[in-house]
Amino acid sequence: MKLKEIGEFGLISLIREKMVRKDSNIAAGIGDDAAVINLPKGCICLVTTDILVQDTHFRLDYTDPLRLGRKSLSINLSDIAAMGGTPQYFLLSMGLPASLPLRWIEEFFHGVQQVAEEYDLSLIGGDTSLARKLTINITLIGRGKAGEVIYRKGAQVGDQIMVTGTLGNAALGLRILKSHKGDSSISHAEDRDLAELIDKHLSPTPRIAEGRVIAKNHLATAMIDISDGLTADLGHVLEESHAGAKIWVSQLPLSEAYRRKAPHYISGDIDLAVSGGEDYELLLTTPRKKREKLLGLFRQFGLKITPIGEIVDPRHGLRLFLDDGREYRPRNKGYDHFKKPR
Ligand code: ADP
Ligand code: MG
Whose CA is nearest to atom 18 of ligand 1? Predict the structure, then answer.
């Protein structure tokens, strides 16, 4: 069955049926002109939105609807994580081609629902329209406390630069998908490295619990999630903080899968870890005296956190160094939609 057979309102009822959640703070959700939510006293509201456009952010030939549904919500969660907040409500707007199979949409919502359940989120509305290309826009609302929220500004000279998880997996996963002409089945059964790398691109994990621990314990002076690549996103922190940074390239955390597969797909092994996007890891700056506490608290997560550099005077800009003291110059500065990569 195709979307055109059930129409816009058929689709909205289907979504409404599939996505039921009870939250006593929602006075009105899907089905009225606007959602109505009660905000508890003393909380501040964090609001973020992200758009995914077919053929710009994803291609239908190598993106399965389940993981695209998961990713659509996860990338918004990552922005709330980067502020140290708790996600709560979301609105989902879609531009859909009428020829899209209903099965595809159901699988997509299944993915959205999985993530909504994992993080206890409620869908409170959205909009639906016909479109030539599939377009997905989620707005996510979360709560935070004024004294806990972590901004991009705030990094201080001498702070350590830390990153969660590993870098480069998502960008390498995308290279792999492209080099196999979108055949994502190459990976799954036989090669666990390929599966891991591809999965990081198609379904990244937002670092919500980690962001909360960092915020609650005041362990970061600045934080951002890595969506455009390490150098680009660290660049945003430096700009907002009026600071410079030194990065030690040999310290960048690489997964075993990355180490094994990168040489087969790219020439400079480290390039995708330096400037590849979409890992959705947290990048933060931590005062030296809080470093041990941060490392200690992270032991509960089974996710590593790695010191990769230091905040320095803004006159130094952002510079990367190899172990022998030579400077490393990345070939690519990270993703910018309106500029061609250099
Ligand atoms: P309006 O004409 O006021 O935009 P709609 O008929 O588009 O209202 O939407 C009816 C209700 O369904 C609203 O509560 C809206 O938030 C919700 N809704 C519409 N599309 C979606 C969607 N894709 N996901 C979730 N809720 C949706
Ligand atoms: Mg509408």
Answer: 126
